[in-house]
Design goal:
With 334 residues, the protein is an alpha/beta fold. It is 28% helix and 22% strand. The relative contact order is 0.17. Bound molecules: zinc ion (2 copies). It comes from Anaerostipes rhamnosivorans.
Length: 334
């Protein structure tokens, strides 16, 4: 079978590796689609993702597919099941798993490296999806589950005013989820005219650039700011535009070596709460349910569907990733 590796120093290679049968509680999935995540690009650029990166590693963790075989201990899956995989393993035994915090599991590792023809996650990481759900959409289960966790943390109240930084693929999901949560006004902060247009199409009330938001913030009390870019300037601006009694969620992944500045006194006078969000504990089932409901527009977010081989060029140029979500076609089944 083929697997797409990050081989260090901004290089990527498709290698042939042996295919095997599933053991124990493993579910063997023929991967249909895998999303390219911002963290894959981070890794390719030599920065750490959610975990340290020691090449060579297989990229991808947002995959869907069809079960082709199951290990002898598997109870709930059979060949032919359509599934999405949660890539984050929780051992269930360590001190964090015991507290219901599998995102901090001491044994945590990626169990569904989706840039490959087959993955073998344990049963506990596999979720059935309905016949009607397109498998390319099912591959959104992981990024959407991360978005849901972030939103679980900040608990948006009905009628709130919400600003979202960045309309990349995460920002686009965030926007649609905030819309569903009953916010009264949604402001997307984005420099690119194309993305501003998309923001309005996806339900934003305002699409403004980083200068205009400062003026808007004087008029409106922004209750929630969700930063989905991870740049120093936009993270720092998030604190400034946040209103009284507001919450800022720093969702975008920043540079590990780049601290950011916050004026404590200003934050104090606003009674600002700052949140960060790490991975996707207990949210994959809800992500699948949302995708099945058809309430989210994924077509508008996808900028390209590419083969495993075409990812070499894409990782180098990020030509399509800059415009939206890149989906990697493995079996390409729908
Ligand atoms: Zn991801
Ligand atoms: Zn654990």
């Amino acid at each position: 079978m083929r697997a797409g590796y990050y081989t260090g120093d901004r290089t990527y290679e498709v290698r042939e590796i042996p295919e095997r049968e599933p053991k124990g509680d493993e579910v063997k999935i023929e991967v249909a689609w895998c999303g390219l995540c911002g963290t894959d690009i981070h890794k390719f650029e030599g920065k750490n993702g959610a975990s340290p990166v020691i090449p060579p590693i297989i990229l991808g963790h947002e995959c869907s597919g069809i079960v082709t075989a199951v290990g002898p201990d598997v109870q709930y899956f059979k060949p032919g099941d359509r599934v999405a995989a949660d890539p984050s393993f929780g051992c269930g035994k360590c001190i964090y798993c015991q507290q219901g915090l599998p995102n901090f599991c001491l044994e945590r590792h990626g169990v569904a490296k989706g840039f490959s023809d087959y993955v073998y996650p344990p049963e506990q990481n596999v979720y059935k999806v309905s016949e009607d759900l397109d498998l390319r959409d099912a591959a959104f289960a992981e990024p959407l589950s991360c978005v849901i966790h972030g939103l679980d943390l900040i608990q948006i109240q009905g009628g709130a005013t919400v600003a979202i930084y960045g309309l990349g693929s995460i920002g686009s999901l965030m926007l649609q989820m905030v819309k569903l949560s009953g916010a009264s006004r949604i402001i997307v902060v984005e420099r690119e005219p194309e993305k501003q247009k998309l923001a309005l199409e996806l339900g934003a009330d305002y699409a403004v650039d980083d200068r205009e938001i400062e003026q808007l913030a004087e008029r409106l009390n922004i209750d929630y700011v969700i930063e989905c870019i991870g740049l120093k300037q936009t993270m720092e601006q998030s604190f400034r535009i946040a209103g009284k009694n507001s919450k800022v969620l720093l969702f975008g992944l920043g540079d590990p070596d780049q601290p950011i500045l916050m004026n404590q006194f200003e934050a104090y006078t606003k009674e600002l709460s700052i949140y960060t969000s790490y991975l996707n504990p207990h949210t994959t089932k809800r992500a699948v349910a949302l995708l099945e409901s058809g309430k989210l527009n994924t077509d508008a977010i996808i900028s390209a569907s590419l083969s495993l081989e075409e990812m070499e060029e894409e990782l180098k140029t990020q030509e399509n990733a800059k415009k939206g979500k890149v989906m990697v076609r493995l079996s390409g089944k729908h």
